[in-house]
Amino acid sequence: MHHRLKRRIAIPVGAATLMGGLAIAVLGFQASGSTGSSTAKSPTDGWRKQKFTFSLHKPWNKELDQHYRFDSDSKTHRTWVHSTDEPLKKRSKTDPRTEMRWHQEYTKGRHMWDGDVYIREGTDGPSFMQILRVKHPEGTPATDIMMNAYDQNGGTVKSYNGTVIKSGVYNKWWNLKVAHNATTGEIKVYADNKLVLTTKDRGPATRHFKNGVYHHGDGRAEARFRNIRYWVR
């Protein structure tokens, strides 16, 4: 069952300006709390939280609230897009998207994306979290990793279209962590704090995190996020 979020405001804090389909949100999020239990080891042990900021990407010809809402009570970001929607920029050949584009770019060090994720039933084909290589050598891939959702086995998340990260994800909250050591090139993916994938990035680049729905499939895609945290080490 799809539970509709109560609409509060389109942007949590401050204002946004729209430029060619790009919503620039002047805001930041930082979770409170400790770095983990003193008795149970957590993937975030030894890491520290850091503030992050982001811009909102959406189809160039639509208003932001037609694709994104923030519920101030539950602190939930809700993103959705249709396969028939326009891309981010007019005449672009890219797929339609509604994404939170993080401003924090990095070339080295250890960085972790951490958040609770909810994939709506029927969502098939979009990337809902990725490490984008915004500046990379010519001829190298544009991403280091992409978390894709498929309409299989009650909703299945895969790294690209290969390694299964978690199945049975539709219409329920679960936690995803993606830790990247950009100095050594190692990427670790955790589902509900269990290590499910260790892989390598695609080489030197300047990169940043993104989450939302970048739709490579058919129909309507929706992903929601809460308790988003940025960890560094």
Molecular structure report:
Helix content is 0%, strand content 49%. The chain is an all-beta fold and 233 residues long. The chain has no helices and 18 strands. It is globular and about 45 Å long.
Short description:
This protein is an all-beta fold. Helices cover 0% and strands 49% of the residues.
Which terms summarize this structure?
single chain, 233 residues, mainly beta, 10-stranded antiparallel sheet, 8-stranded antiparallel sheet, 18 strands, disordered N terminus
Q: Tell me, briefly, the overall form.
A: globular
Radius of gyration: 17 Å
Q: Could you give a short account of the major beta sheet?
A: 10 strands, antiparallel
Q: DSSP helix count?
A: 0
Unreliably modeled segments: 1-20, 31-38
What is the number of E strands?
18
State the end-to-end CA separation: 39 Å
Mean pLDDT: 89
Summarize the helix and strand pattern as letters: EEEEEEEEEEEEEEEEEE
Tell me the structural class: mainly beta
Q: Which band does the percent of strand residues land in?
A: over 45%
Q: Work out the helicity level.
A: under 10%
List strands and helices in order, with pairings.
Elements: E1 16-19, E2 22-25, E3 28-29, E4 48-49, E5 52-57, E6 68-71, E7 76-82, E8 97-102, E9 110-119, E10 127-135, E11 143-150, E12 156-159, E13 164-167, E14 173-181, E15 186-191, E16 194-200, E17 206-214, E18 220-232
Antiparallel strand pairs: 1-2, 2-5, 3-5, 4-18, 5-8, 6-7, 7-18, 8-17, 9-14, 9-18, 10-11, 10-17, 11-12, 12-13, 14-15, 15-16
